[in-house]
Amino acid sequence: MEKDQYIEFQDRVINLYIEHPEVKQIWKSLDSKRMWRSRGIDNFNSPHHMFLMGKSRVGKTQAVKRYAKQSLKQGEDSYYFDEEGSKVKIIPVVYAEIPDRFTPKEFYNNIIEGLGAVKLYGRVEVGQLKDRALYLLKKHKTEMLILDELDYLLPYASKTREQAMELLKGLANKAGVCLICVGTPEIEVLRTMNEQFIGRYPPRTIPRFEQCDDSFISLLNEIELKLGLETPIGLANSTIGYPQVLHKLSLGFIGWLVPMLQSAMELLGVMEEGFNDFDKLKRLNGNILIEAKKNAVGDITKNDIEKIIRKRVK
To answer: Three-state SS for 308?
Structure first.
C-alpha cells in the first residue's frame, strides 16, 4: 500500500536534514582530497588532510556522518573479490570517534568498529590492534578516515596530546588515507602543537548563523522545500516574523533549529497517528516555538548560552 500524503509529510519531518552552506563547500573539499589521494598516494605532502572545527550544535557530526554514508557506492561498484575469491565491501570513507578515555588500544578498536568489524578485547597487544586496523583499512580500500570528538584529547597533558597526534599521523601515513579531524574550536591547540601539524592540517570551520540575515532566511526557505508542502508555512517570511523568532530561539545553530521545528510539529499534533489535516500547521506561533525550544534543548540558562557563544580557544 502506498503511503498517503500525510504519512509522507511525517516522514519528511522525522528525516529533516539541512546542510549548512559551508558544509556543501566542505563536502566538495573532501571529494577533492580523495581525488588527490587517489592520484598521488605516495606523496604524503599532498593536501590530503583537514581539521574541521565548529561550535557544538552547528552540525559537524551529522555532516561528516552523512558524507561517509553518501560515499558508499551501489551495485557492482560497492564490492570486489579478493585473491581468495571472497566478496569484500568497499568502504571509501570511514567514520570513527576518538575514545573518551584515550588509549592506543581503544583508538584502534574504534577504527576497527568503524569498519564494521568486531572489537578485539582480552589479552591482545597494541601492535596487534594496529595491524588489524591497517589491514582492514587497506582491505576495504578506504580513502578517507574521519576522526570525530578530538576534544576528548584536550584534558590530557601536552606530552600525551602530542603522542596521540603522532599516533593518528602514523596510522594515516601507513594506511595511505586522508585524515579528517573533527571537533570544537578548542582543538586548534592540537593542530598548532608544532609546525609540522600546522602545515599538515589546514583548518576549516562550520560557523553558526550569527545574524538573521539573507543566509539564514535562505536556510529557512530550504527547510520549507524539504518539508514539501503545497502551501508553505511561512518560516522564511520576515513580515510574519518567523525568521526573527527562529533565529532568536535557535541562536543560529542548526543543531537546535531542526529539532526545535520537529518538536513544534509534534506539539501541533502533526506527528500523531491518523494525522490528516494540514490546517493544524496554521496554529504555529511564538508560544509553540518557545515550548518546542524547551523540549529540544532543555532548561538551558543564559550563562550556558554565553559560554557556548563566547568560548574561545585557549
So the answer is: helix
- How far apart CA 217 and CA 214 sit, in angstroms, is 5
Residue 46 confidence (pLDDT) above 80: no
| CA of residue 227 relative to chain centroid, distance | 21
Per-residue model confidence as pLDDT tens digits over 59-77:
999 999 999 999 987 767 8
Mean pLDDT of the chain: 91
Assess if residue 269 is contained within a domain.
yes
Supply the CATH number for residue 110's domain: 3.40.50.300
d(CA 111, CA 145): 9
Domain shared by 149 and 273, yes or no: no
96 beta partners: 147
One-letter amino acid at 8 equals E
Single residue among 205, 228, 251 that ends a domain in this structure: 205
b/e code 264-280 from CB counts within 10 Å (16+ = b): bbebbebeeeebeeeee
The SS3 of residue 29 is helix
Closest CA to 147 of 207, 205, 90, 65: 65
Question: With bands split at pLDDT 50, 70 and 90, how would you rate the model's confidence at 42?
Answer: low
Contact yes or no for 236/243 (Cβ under 8 A): yes
- Residues forming a β-bridge with 178: 144
At CA 101, angle to CA 98 and CA 102, rounded to 5?
55
pLDDT digits (tens, 9 = 90+) for 152-173: 999 999 999 999 999 999 999 9
Residue 2's pLDDT is what? Answer: 52
Q: Which domain holds residue 171?
A: 47-205
Same domain, 115 and 213: no
Count: domains in the chain: 2
